[in-house]
Amino acid sequence: xxxxxxxxxxxxxxxxxxxxxxxxxxxxxxxxxxxxxxxxxxxxxxxxxxxxxxxxxxxxxxxxxxxxxxxxxxxxxxxxxxxxxxxxxxxxxxxxxxxxxxxxxxxxxxxxxxxxxxxxxxxxxxxxxxxxxxxxxxxxxxxxxxxxxxxxxxxxxxxxxxxxxxxxxxxxxxxxxxxxxxxxxxxxxxxxxxxxxxxxxxxxxxxxxxxxxxxxxxxxxxxxxxxxxxxxxxxxxxxxxxxxxxxxxxxxxxxxxxxxxxxxxxxxxxxxxxxxxxxxxxxxxxxxxxxxxxxxxxxxxxxxxxxxxxxxxxxxxxxxxxxxxxxxxxxxxxxxxxxxxxxxxxxxxxxxxxxx
Length: 356
Prior knowledge:
This protein folds into 2 domains: 2-120, Methane Monooxygenase Hydroxylase, Chain G, domain 1; 180-355, Jelly Rolls (Sandwich). The chain has 5 helices and 13 strands. It has helices spanning 2-10, 28-49, 55-88, 93-120, 295-301; strands spanning 180-183, 188-192, 198-200, 206-210, 219-223, 238-245, 251-257, 270-275, 281-284, 304-310, 316-324, 331-337, 353-355. The two termini are 32 Å apart.
């Protein structure tokens, strides 16, 4: 259920489409689909092992949600592959179109199974439209995504996206137990926020890991949430990440935060960011942008990504520092872009790290 919540939390099912996850960059769509299929297989196996008297409740609360959402994700990934194949005139185009039809039908059959299970005990509770949205209001009925076909039929089935190892839930760990150093890859460095080199707290502020809270890994946040506002600098609370950079001049640092509204109605929740001994840049994650409703994107994407530019950075070892200003900020990920970051929904996967 933790993984189900994580995967659905990345983007709500009704907001998914074939363009959500990148098919070309970082194998993102394939990895997301494989992880969901793996979760569905685990749920099916567990269903055969639990006592019979619990299986009805298990189906309603666990098995059906996982299977339905795994199927939906594979549906959209298959649509993306179908369109990519069609653009290439790939002979597997029609097989992928057939796969989309099959998965769309499976969605309907899963709904029928849910509505008739246990003499219809939960009939119609999951009947809300979930395929074919074009804006926030639900359409009157599900609608299969459009697919493309070629005149030439393929000679064999197209390769399907199947199971994967998936990721595992990270346990709460002592903040002093490990340290990490990261290395550049293809013009970027990607870091899970909980894999810091050092976590510097104070008598009043401690850093805590929030296991499995995040689109890809876990998150980290200063506690208590009632702590006083901090002024970055010296030994005030901050996180340090040691990185090796091949060559650079100007670096863009992207910090990924769990979405939070500006509930104080002021400058918003702020953090500081610096490299080495720079003066920290103070950045608000959620100050209202002249009422341009940018919060809609935060809600839909389940993330707030803030960027800062750092100039005259040389090759070699550096330390990225994320400073606490306000409590209540939840950091998921840090990406250093030296010009190599490609478009994707989740951002580049974590790059190579060395454990100390």
